[in-house]
Amino acid sequence: MKKGEQREEEVKGKGNLKLAIVLVLTLGLAPFTPEPHIWGKIKWVMGGANGMQIMDYFDLVLHGTPWVYFIVVLLKYLKKS
Question: Which of 2, 14, 23, 44 has its CA 20 to 30 A from that of 60?
Fold first, then answer.
């Protein structure tokens, strides 16, 4: 791999990490009060998910996807470093 290509890949990796952080801080934690939505859904699932409906599972996936993306990008970034 040439020096220019390596530098370009490094910049791209940092850009993906920045995007992942923005997604986690916005959609991943929204709404912020009284507690982050994803945290409430995780507690609900850990408590047995009693009364959860399809919309609640969709909500869990919606707010959880940025976290999964962040973890994948972070692991790739750390692996390259």
Answer: 14
